[in-house]
From TrEMBL:
Residues 33-132 form the Fe2OG dioxygenase domain. It comes from the Eukaryota. It comes from Amborella trichopoda. Signal peptide: none annotated. PANTHER family: 2-OXOGLUTARATE (2OG) AND FE(II)-DEPENDENT OXYGENASE SUPERFAMILY PROTEIN-RELATED. PROSITE patterns: FE2OG_OXY. Pfam families: 2OG-FeII_Oxy. This is Fe2OG dioxygenase domain-containing protein.
């Protein structure tokens, strides 16, 4: 995962520059970073309209770097509420921003709402979630806070959010998200 990791950190730098911040602005929060990789396997489904691969969610990460196969089905929610399908492109990574970036930027950069639909074809993906150091204190950076934009999040230790989210992912949800 060396390349996706390098890419993830490069994107953190590019986001910082695009916001008028020094390139390495986010780096102190990622020393001994708590990034992790996970893999998803979606078996082929004969009734895709009755199944959901992965329900709508945002990632906890600052940025997530995905390696996708050619099966397709990755969808992102647009600002107008419509879902856009991300077409698989051989040799390309799919990158989305997550909740940590949203907190750092006091909602200036949103976390991408996404989901995965399954089809008749088997599907695999590998995701590298670039997450802050477990004991880093996370809060909106001062550059994004002023009188008109008070902080939308209180300071918290990253581990608290990441542990509670990861535990909740193993709880069966009765919320219907299919087709949302
Ligand atoms: O399988 C995919 O393409 C994406 C899965 C995903 O969104 C995730 O693991 O957070
Ligand atoms: Fe995701």
């Amino acid at each position: 995962m060396q390349k996706p990791q390098k890419l993830g950190f490069k994107i953190l730098e590019l986001i910082a520059l695009s916001l008028g911040l020094p390139a390495k602005k986010f780096h102190p929060f990622f020393e001994n970073h708590g990034s992790y990789m996970h893999m998803n396997h979606y078996p082929p489904c004969s009734n895709p309209e009755l199944a959901l691969g992965k329900g709508l969610h945002t990632d906890l990460s600052a940025v997530s770097v995905h390696i996708e196969d050619n099966a397709g089905g990755f969808k992102i929610k647009q600002n107008n509420g419509n879902w856009a399908t991300v077409k698989p492109l051989s040799g390309a990574y799919v990158v989305n921003t997550g909740d940590a970036m949203r907190v750092f930027t006091n909602d200036r950069i949103e976390s991408v709402v996404h989901k995965v639909m399954v089809g008749g074809e088997e599907r695999y993906s590998v995701v590298l979630a670039i997450e802050p150091t477990r004991n880093a204190i996370i809060e909106p950076l001062e550059e994004f806070v002023n009188e008109e934009n008070p902080p939308k999040y209180k300071a918290f230790m990253w581990e608290k959010l990441s542990t509670s989210r990861k535990l909740s992912e193993f709880v069966k949800s009765d919320v219907k998200t299919l087709g949302a």
